[in-house]
Fold each of these.
Amino acid sequence: MVKQKDKGMMEHFLPAMVTIVFMGILWFGSMVTASNIDKSSALNQVTRKYMLRMEADGYLTQENKTAMVSELQALGVEGADLTGTSLTDAGYGNPVTLQVKGTLTVRSIVFKGFTKSMLKEERIPWSVKRVSIAKN
Amino acid sequence: MNRKRKKTKKDTGTIFNPVLYLMILFLTVQLMLMFVSYRRMSWLSETITDGMTDALLGAAVLEEEELYAYGRSDELQILYPKEKYDIFKDLLRQELGLTNAMTAVRGSVPVVDGNVQIEDFVVYSVNGSDVTVYDFDETGAYVTTIHPGQKDVLTAPNGMSVRESSLFAKIRFQVRYMGVPMNVSRYHMVDIVDE
């Protein structure tokens, strides 16, 4: 009678290790996606804050413009272009627009072998347009 | 030839069972997808609520005659409710990146699918203790009702009592949650104040 040979330790642990590696990749990917969503949310909040100020002032003041560009830069927006934004007093009851275009740094996961980092930073076009009515 | 099948020793269930790992992996994929979808929905909810609030605040601008009446009576009465509705609709359309027909297209707020409908738009105009209600339907037509002595008593559809002249809006749209289309409604109310 031939006795079946016991499986080696490696054979036992291989599925477990593969599962752990895949779970790690999934978890990491989800976190990267969640951080990109959070960044988008933060950008929305920044532009909204300055839109509300524009509503009260009737336009984007130089001080607010500088502060907003600086806040956007901190969140990864480069080359903020404010063409189309109301930069002079629109007057009560008239539309005010905040329009920003630029490039945004986002993270993504790319597999290029086990020796290289999977995390990749890339620049994508980003734009936002907000409109309201001046109440100054 | 009569071969006797040899009875082999069956593997006992252990934690090293590959099927178990496949199940764990499958569950992890499901959980992570749900986690990302949930975050996207939270983001969408926040974006839509902000868009509605901004559009309502924009619509809360007073016309010249309303300002004049306010100067005389010191009460913020709404005399042009249709203008408020039109401003709200226009601002909401621009905030969410919709077409003129209020349809989501490429470049609109992601996840929103198809048409965005203004299900309800109500203008509450408070004059003394009376409240005049202008209730708009989905087509943009409205009915006017006067509620004498109902200030602080009348409640808006969101359950808040009407104390100041205010605007209430409820919108309806479809989103895709993990590929499944779902109907969603959002509502919001803002007071028209002089500050």
Amino acid sequence: MKRLIYIAIALISLNSCKREQMPYEGPSLEDINGTFGFLNAYKSDKTIIDFSKGEVVNFSAEFTKICTWKIEIKGQSSGAKKVLEGKSRNIGAPLSTWNGTTSFFPMFKNENCVATLKIEGVTDTFNLNIIVTGLKKPSGFVVANFESGISSKWTTFIQNGASMDFKVKSDEFVVEGSNYLNMAGTVNWDWLIGLIDFPATAYGNGTDKTFPITSIADDVYFNCLIYGVPNSNPSRILFQFKEDDNGNGTFESSADDEYDKEIIVNWEGWKLVSFKYNSLARLVNGTPAVNNGNSKFNPNSINKISMLHLANPTIGPGSTKIDCLMFTEKGPLEL
Amino acid sequence: MLKAKHIIILFTSWALNGNAQISPKVKITGGARSIINNQNIQVNDSIPDKTTPKGNAGGYALIDLGFNISPNKNTEILGMIRIKNQYGGFFGGGVTFDVRQLWVKGIIADAVRYQLGDINLKQTPFTFYNNNEDLLINQNPVTKMQQEIVNYETFYKNNTWRQQGASVDFGLNFSKYLQEINVNGYITRLNMTNFGNVPERLFGGSTIDFVVNDHLSAQYNLSSVFDVTGTGTDSNSFRNIVNTGAFKYTNTFKNYPIVLKGEFGNSSMYYTKDSNAPMLNDFFLNPSAQISFPKLNIELEVGYLNVGPDFRSPGAQSKRINYNSALTSFGLYKQTQADRPMGLGDIMGDNKLYNNGISNKIMAYHPLINNVLPYGLATFNRNGIYGIAKWSNKEKGLSADWAHYQLSEIRGQGTKNLKQYTMSNVQLGWNLSKVLKLKKSLKISTAVSYQQTSRAGDFSFEKVDLQSIQSAFGFEWEFAKQLELVGGYTGLQGKGNDQVSNRNSFTEVTDFKDYNVNLNESITAVGLRFRFTEKAYFGIMYQSFNYENKAQAFDNYKINQTLIIYNLLF
């Protein structure tokens, strides 16, 4: 009996002694530290591209060693920039695929672009020319892009402060399309400078009481482009998503949920801001608070979105610009 | 704040009343400490520094007040509250109240012991073990005092990890085949769900100890980290299971006591639904033999260690020091507000650097402090032999310990050539009062740890040669009744190059970072300590910590520190 137990233990032990055989772990040191050279030249599969048709450009190259590489695509007219980067022996999809999106705003135009390959530790750079003939169209539900100005179906409230400039503009700051909304002014008695309410009834045929988006909160993203103005008084943009949980066609704070997002605009220039709907919380004066509805994220029950521009009244003027307010599903907006 | 104060006052008065009325049922336990600290930093920089402060002073007083209550003979409850006051925070400002410990333990039906709440847990060096691999050698008495405070703060005691959960243990006696079986099981919570993408993560395990006879015992150990399916929105769950077997055989060989022991086992780490995640399976072996020569007071041990490159055991491979932590003192230095490199002075006294939890990631290590076994015996990708010798002479008050490890990698890192590791530790202690026949205590101690890592190669980028020495010298001289002069030196010198592996979230090697170093760190310390009792002392210490990077001279700095410590345990 004892011997059988010992034999069983020994067999189980031997069976457990399996080790995956591989020559070494990680990338080859020879691949990392060898001499740099091209095995296949740097090239793109297209030189003329129409992103509006869903086309993409693939860049490729093969090196003699593993390299840290970066492709900077720059619009010669817009100054827009897209950066693709990686660390590999081969440049290839998906890391080196450009679908017309932008890394540094403004956005690309129909223009000539130069795609420059830079390799860490190599002084030479390598250029390719790409001609963009059609632009990528943002996909998602557009809440506001200000291309037709401020809709009469939206509700606005603008304080009667000094130097108020709450207008749609089409000047050199345009980032997407032809227009954006400027929000600026000095209100020395209140944090609120101005607001716009976007009711669900402002869209479609005007009869829907909720926005036409999925009920799966984990899939829903809200996106916008915000311009940070160099300023000692950083603007705050507060989005309030007001749900109609009881289905009576209107938002009531005593019976429905509201989810809020406050964005402190502490950067300079345009920036794409995206957030997941189920990452939001109810805020009262910036502090998390309890909701009065079903306390569940119901994006398909959003009845109204309020956008408030706030700034500290004791410091001075607040100023920002905004564009491209959109819902997307399954991922953030790509511009 | 007032509410918290009132609760404590009520609790204290209730407990004290209870103590007065039914004294055997309530015991008060805890500790008190006060530290006044004054530090200044000297920086070697080419640009005059006008952006970072060069000194700081402060301190705190704290009391840990624990109420150990036994409501009945089978139950014991401990609740410990910490009241801490930063100096300068008078009249309630700067005062914090925390619950430091909370547990219940007892015996069910005179057979099963249980504990709920805070638990100190330990299994074997390959399953669940709090290694101290960043302090390989005994420290000088001044840094040792600081380490004792760190250990108290972090609950490091006898290589246990402090966890929150539940444990049970019980034993069974047999009349045939076996003498007894002892069973221990535990379950603890590593992190709680956020009801979103972070699931509930638990750590559980058990040890079954089979005592065959007076000479032979065997053990089965299980430790497992796992996500509870359904507690987050992501159905992908992490699993890391370690199974080990161990044995111990004791007898005599030609009248010399011998011990043959060993542990062997395997691990499996995987994600249930992530097709990008690898499944890492591997095993380890660690047999050893020990012989004692009682007349000579000598113990010798030789062992073999083989731990696979893919062996993963979070409970045994989590490190005490989190080398990515922000430093408490002078975290930013120089005009450029650069991050100050962590040094021995921080490691000895900054308890904020120390980790309380189990990590399922591979934690960073310091190649100069321990490159050979950074995760203790459970360090993966090691193969080789070791020897340990201990000698003591009680009459002369002498003791000496020696340990030597000769190891190599099992799987190369970016090359087929394997790194070779050597580590030798020597520690000597001498109670001179026995030899000099002094009435009062005079002790000296010294210790050295030498490490070498090397790798040959056809190319210069393959070659690795890194050497480091840790050393310590200390003395404790009781020159008046209960009053001691203490002091010593701790040093770390290292030179050479290595390549440190970068790992992804699945612990796979993705890249290598060159590590070139020529470093000299030293702590020189001296102080006076008045011992009220074994558990209470008052000390005034001065310590100078020097960080000298010969490869990058502008990183260099020196921190001088004066400490006044009062420490009491009751």
